[in-house]
Amino acid sequence: MKYWACDEDRQKVNAAFYRTAFASNEGRPHWADQLVACEFKVEKSRDGAPQDPFDDVPGGVGGVSPATSNRGKKNRGKIISYAELIFAVQQRIAVFMLLVLGRKCRFIRWDRSGYVVTHAFDYYVQWQFFVSVLWRMSQCSDTRLGLDPTAHRLFPGDADYIRMTEAAKSQASDIDHKERLLSDDEVPKGSFVFKYVREAFFESVKDKHWPRYRVEVPDGAKTRTFLIGKPTFQAKGLAGRGTRGYVALDCDAKDERFVWLKDAWRAHYLLVDREGDILARLQKAKVPKVPTLICHGDIGEQVTYTPQRWEEKNSEPFLYPTPDAMSPLSNVAGPPSSSGQKRKFNADREKGDMSPPKGLSELPFRPECPLRLHKHYRLVVEEVALPLREFKFGRQLISVVKDCVVAHYNAYEKLSLLHRDVSGGNVLIYPRLVKTADGRFKIAFTGILADWEMAKETTITGPRQPVRTGTWQYMSVALLTGNKDVEVCDELESFLYVLLYYATRYLTSPFNDITIANYLDEFFDKFGWLDGRWVCGDKKKNTIASGDFEIADSGMLRFNSNMDDVLADLLSWFKAHHVVTRYEAEAAASRSAAPTPQTSTSDLKSDAALAPVRPRTVPRMSLPRRKSTKLDGPSNEDREMARCASDHTAVVVLLEDAERAIGWSLNDRAGDRIPSDWRTDSTDDLDSTYISATETKNKKLKASGSLPLSPA
């Protein structure tokens, strides 16, 4: 079978159901047109191993569980990847799949919360039931089969399809986004488009196999429409928010206007604010360096069904009801199992979607349910920004991060708002046309702090959803070590890790590329397992404790530039904060401990009488004694540096001073320091596919350490 061009991984599902108008006989899996995917397997492999990705468990919770055999895990990973690809290529609410295993088969329904799967049944014996299901599916509308009715497919010849093709063509008025002073003839006379924006839109429509859509986005009581092609950004993994970002064409704008459209399945809980509502508040408060809201809204009543199915099968007070063993339709329930060994977790570096702790926090939201409830949501903002990896030199990296700290400071001071997901994927570059003091114009790179969907006011106490928020690789040591609320110091520590990651990966340093890749992997992707929860990895924890960036063989990370001083100063502040916080916690625990009862003299005499001291059997000698482990109190210098770790102004001043310092090179960028053929350690847990922090540009990694996709 031939693969389909829009699939970089060249996956080959065995068959699929199509509408008659889209059916093809060329032997390719047309991922854009499939309604129901079909996978065929013999019941057992040549070595006798069962091929079924699931096990029927009579009397168990839901009656079906994920197979634990290596063959079952592998096949489950394969069908998950098929469903993930269909979600990526099409505009979907759910995906249906038929899995045939010799004489048996299963039907599966996938959504962004998990999946519902039937018992395996013999379609030869139960042919009437099997045929009935297939006939009913053939009579279903596209919406019933999981397609999103607010996304309208475009085809060659459609006016909007042609409009997209024309908009992708370069124009003489387009401006290069390189930082520079503009000559008089470069200054735009009216509206203009940066070249990188139009090029990104061209990349989204150049693949004729990738479908184009006109999608609807709520705008108060009205509805606006936008034209999209292939997503510029796409979060890895099937379960979760499934975030996709598009350079979109605004259908309602008088002039040609490109915007950024975000399509996601947001956490749907009563007290969780929508990102657009947060952006509107930021704009009203005149918080700088944040995205400019155009419109946003929930997409109808599109919510994930799998958690509802779990509730139906596990309704209180009978938490684990006995399933109807005679019914061929069932579903799986129960939290996924996980290993206690230390493993690697790999999430999408450019805005991760699957942090290790998610779904495991002890919160009052039916914690026994392994499923998150999601609702479909779209957001449109004006700025089509560049990812942080596009910075050109170290000083520019400092400047962009500084702008985002300023945005964070203003949100905190004006609205008591914490971002709670400061990460490399959310610190963006936005080129602006700026007028200088002498009346000239220049292109300047500025920073934008994006993705405010997890933001929360400090005045709100208690969890609002049954997950820990944040991107694992950039979270503070304190957040990854214990249960605590996010504070300013945690967010500022995350900015340190953003600087560290991008400086290490893209700037010149005296270490070879393999050493750099291994260091980033160990610092950002490793984690530990303690008392039933994922905790901070040793490299990050030891770095904060020691105050040194030890990279390998007792060597210290260095760039031989001003970046060394910036990172060292910031790290010293967070080390001091760690020392002060630990000391104060132990002092508080000591004060709260109950005093030891005093022993009276009479008791001593009585004890001596009961246990008389025996005469020495060896000569007396002086023995070395272990010194007291009582911590000395932090010094005044420690306390002052610890204060800086929670002070936006201190961090901004430090970054501004570094930005203005002399000695920066404009040629300190080395390109990507992670070799294209570098690989992290991995195992065969294929329940999820995702990208690590140290993912190479050319190949996708599959590694253990993720939360498995949860069944209902």
UniProtKB/TrEMBL annotation:
The chain crosses the membrane at residues 79-102. Residues 587-602 have a biased composition (Low complexity). The keyword Transmembrane applies. It comes from the Eukaryota. Residues 46-73, 329-361, 587-639 are annotated as: Disordered. Keywords: Membrane, Transmembrane, Transmembrane helix. InterPro entries: Kinase-like_dom_sf, Pkinase_fungal. Residues 70-501 form the Fungal-type protein kinase domain. This is Fungal-type protein kinase domain-containing protein. The lineage of its organism: Eukaryota, Fungi, Dikarya, Basidiomycota, Agaricomycotina.
